[in-house]
């Protein structure tokens, strides 16, 4: 099964991700690499990943504290969700769709 997660927060998906696709600002895939290779070769990326993981740990601690103090769930989100909108070029969509179709040769 193929799952695609489009995110800037690599720390959330790094435990399940096998590959990272670097995409330019115009939506064109620039590079495909194994996540472990990128972490070992790119020190800035590794530092950013470490920072994101620390933020996730803090959020988990906050949620655990909230859960301890909560008697009954009221159905509301604990943390506000960030939602952003953007676009993907037709060229990028075409590249993605071509990758899904097995080659006939």
The gist of it:
The protein has helices spanning 10-13, 35-41, 43-69, 90-100; strands spanning 19-23, 29-34. By secondary structure, it is mainly alpha-helical. The longest helix is centred in the middle third of the chain and has 27 residues, at 43-69.
Quick one: biggest sheet?
A: 2 strands, antiparallel
Q: Give the CA-based shape.
A: extended
Helix coverage percent of residues?
Answer: 40-55%
Q: Termini, distance in Å? A: 22 Å
Based on CA atoms alone, the radius of gyration comes out at: 18 Å
Overall number of structural domains: 1
Count of distinct strands: 2
Please describe what this structure looks like.
Helices cover 47% and strands 10% of the residues. It has 4 helices and 2 strands; from the N terminus they run αββααα. Strands 1-2 form a two-stranded antiparallel sheet. α2 crosses α3. The relative contact order is 0.13.
Could you give the topology of this structure?
Layout (H helix, E strand, L loop, with lengths): L9 H4 L5 E5 L5 E6 H7 L1 H27 L20 H11 L5
Antiparallel strand pairs: 1-2
Helix pairs in contact: 2-3
Which short descriptors sum up this protein?
extended; mainly alpha; two-stranded antiparallel ribbon
């Amino acid at each position: 099964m193929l799952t695609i997660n489009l995110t800037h927060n690599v720390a959330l998906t790094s435990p399940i991700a096998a590959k990272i696709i670097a995409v330019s600002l115009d939506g064109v895939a620039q590079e495909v690499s194994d996540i472990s290779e990128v972490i070992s070769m790119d020190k800035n990326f590794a530092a950013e990943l470490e920072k994101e993981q620390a933020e996730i740990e803090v959020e988990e601690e906050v949620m655990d504290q909230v859960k301890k103090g909560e008697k009954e769930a009221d159905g509301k989100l604990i943390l506000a969700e960030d939602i952003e909108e953007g676009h993907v070029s037709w060229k990028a969509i075409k590249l993605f769709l071509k990758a899904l179709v097995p080659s006939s040769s």
